[in-house]
Amino acid sequence: MEKVFKIAVLKGDGIGPEVVDAALEVLNTISQIYGVKFEYREGLIGGIAIDETGDPLPDETLELCLNSDAVLLGAVGGPTWDNLPQDKKPERGLLKIRKALNLYANLRPVKVFDALIDSSPLKPEVVRGTDLLVVRELVSGIYYGEPRGIYEENGKRCGKNTMKYCEDEIERVTRKAFEIARKRRKKVTSVDKANVLDVSALWREVVNRVAKDYPDVELEHLYVDNAAMQLIRRPSTFDVIVTGNIFGDILSDEAGVLPGSLGMLPSASIGDKYALYEPVHGSAPDIAGQAIANPIATILSAGMMLKYSFNMDEASALIEKAIKETLNQGYRTADIYSEGTIKVDTKGMTQKIVENIKRLANK
Ligand code: IPM
Ligand code: MG
Asked: Looking at ligand 1, which residue's alpha carbon is closest to its atom 12?
């Protein structure tokens, strides 16, 4: 019998629907080649969900995700909703779904394609060969810690958040990082601020303890300020970087400039039971509706879904290979365009990738 995978599709706002449609086209191609069936069911999230239901993550959407094999998400947010109170913003929908599905490990691979090396702001000799993976803790830390809020103290208004990690939360994400490193270049860099923060001192202690179970993997510790610097000085020396929620948020955007465009970066957010896949870039309201967005980040995210949720490693590698080939053939969306290359729109890029997938599959 043909295998059926149920995918919850949350297109969201801005360019979200455009790039998700591109990824679905690629999944349909994979479905034909490998004889598996993907069943797509759509749900609302973000600004569009606020407009239609008053809630950035309606119960119906959450229910849909809980009953799916994987979630594919576009992007949330935009200027229309920026002035809403903190707990009513589209971004809340994202934080809520991460927590509800317990997606504690956020995987953000950063690979510099040789064909795009000149789009990088760094010198080619510094950036060449960069192939790293940020493993960011995603459901705890300062994003969720209590107490929090804006309040009055001695006649002044103050704002407060709490950075808190418990041992088990540090351990599970660290294990994930080591397991993944084992299948890569066997190096883990743990990033913290253990010279100042108590929460980081505990982080480091737990990482050192977990590392004992992985003697074949090299472990390095960096303070987050130094890590920010080393990422620019020697990006190609990193393999897996494991860190907490806010450091991972910041470092993954920094790492995102290495390949020249955020439009290239996919992500997977995984827990023990559920998984969600989305591009690292946001809703890009400035170019929404123009059909010029780079679909590669979302297509690569669908590729990560094949690998991590459906054990289809070969299909996932095929997608990556086809993207590499498409870039080598000179096709570029506006964000990565340079003189002498061929400018295509979202559909054009998707079409070329689909063609290359079909061609490479027949080899
Ligand atoms: C990200 C984003 C989100 C985050 C926002 C949109 C809530 O920046 O996924 O990195 O801070 O986690
Ligand atoms: Mg971010």
From this structure: 249
In a domain, 72, yes or no: yes
Which atom from ligand 1 is nearest to the alpha carbon of 253? 10
Cα–Cα distances in angstroms (integers) from residue 58 to residues 50, 74, 84, 233, in the given order: 9, 16, 17, 44
Say what the pTM is. Answer: 0.95
Residues with catalytic annotation?
Answer: 143, 193, 225, 249, 253
Indicate whether 143 and 244 sit together in one domain: yes
SS3 (DSSP) at 139: coil
Q: 6 alpha carbon to ligand 2 midpoint, in Å?
A: 27
**Number of domains the chain contains:** 2
Q: Which helix (H) or strand (E) holds 352?
A: helix 346-361
Q: Whose CA is nearest to atom 4 of ligand 1?
A: 249
pLDDT tens-digit map of 176-206 = 999 999 999 999 999 999 999 999 999 999 9
**The total number of residues written for the chain in this structure:** 363
Which residue's C-alpha comes closest to atom 6 of ligand 1? 91
Which of 200, 204, 278 shows the shortest CA–CA distance to 246?
200
Q: Per the domain annotation, does 254 fall within a domain?
A: yes
- CA 355/CA 131 separation, integer angstroms: 26
263 located within any domain: no
Confidence of residue 363 (pLDDT cuts 50, 70, 90): confident
Q: How would you label 181-196 residue by residue, b for 16+ Cβ within 10 Å and e otherwise?
A: beeeeebbbbbbbbee
